Amino acid sequence: MMNLLNGLLHLLLVWISAQSLLFIIRNHSRTRARNLPPGPSFMTAIRNLLYLSSRPHKCLAQLANIYGPAMTIQLGYVTTVVVSSVSMAKEVLLRNDASCSYRNPLISFSVLGHNEATVAFLPPNSYWRNLRKICKSQIFAGSKLDATRGLRRKAVQQLLSHVQGYCEAGVPVKIGEAVFTTSLNYLSNAFFSMDSADPCADTARELRKLVWGVAEVVGKPNFADYFPQVKFLDLQGIERRTTKLVGQAIRIIDAMITRRLQSREEVGYVEDDDVLGALLNISGQQR
């Protein structure tokens, strides 16, 4: 029985590889016709797909030195345009932001319908414009950033104290983990008025653990993102793990929203000075 399953799996992988190779060859021949930037050949792209999984920044930097600040890379079935200079980034993010805003979501970002409710992956429609307007007015506006200046200062001071303590103890500092903790602590304060660094706050500690877990999972390259034929197999278990972690995080945030609404009902309307309060106000105005 196991030999039969192994044989079927082998045949499936051979078929997928053959189909993918044919697709890449055909797609590469159409690149010029679609007026895309230059890029490596399809054989080079196959080799780079393996290299990108472990050192994407170094691989892309080396390719940019060869093909320029805008290049086209075929990653499996996904045609990807990579920009790697300030001028090209401005061209994409500022001058053509509406045209370049929509992108195919990765599988890990699509669990539980997340891609249908986030600015990063929505097409430029009315809902997307409304979300952008809310982000601009409630998060990135100058007055909002000024109001949270104290939170940023507090988070940086906590980071410095953390690093100093490690230095005095002669222990190496895990920079990535320290920066992640600092950023999450600031965001949890700004969004929920909750200190994620508080060891006594069970909800904050659990949310921090979940966010860290999600960041680790979605940071891993997923073979199924480049070869959709094997998505249903979830060979690396990324979709399964992400669904579990995101589901747990959503339940925690739902509970926080419920408690905030109950608190408002008990004491009457409160002008909350965090993002959650602002979003609840907007949601109430739109009903």
Automatic annotation (TrEMBL):
Signal is among the record's keywords: yes
The organism's place on the tree of life at top rank: Eukaryota
Keyword DNA damage: no
Keywords: Signal
Family matches, as InterPro entries: Cyt_P450, Cyt_P450_sf
Signal peptide: 1-20
Classification via SUPFAM superfamilies: Cytochrome P450
Gene3D superfamilies per the UniProt record, alphabetical: Cytochrome P450
GO terms, molecular function: heme binding; iron ion binding; monooxygenase activity; oxidoreductase activity, acting on paired donors, with incorporation or reduction of molecular oxygen
Pfam families: p450
Name assigned to this protein: Cytochrome P450
Organism: Nepenthes gracilis (Slender pitcher plant)
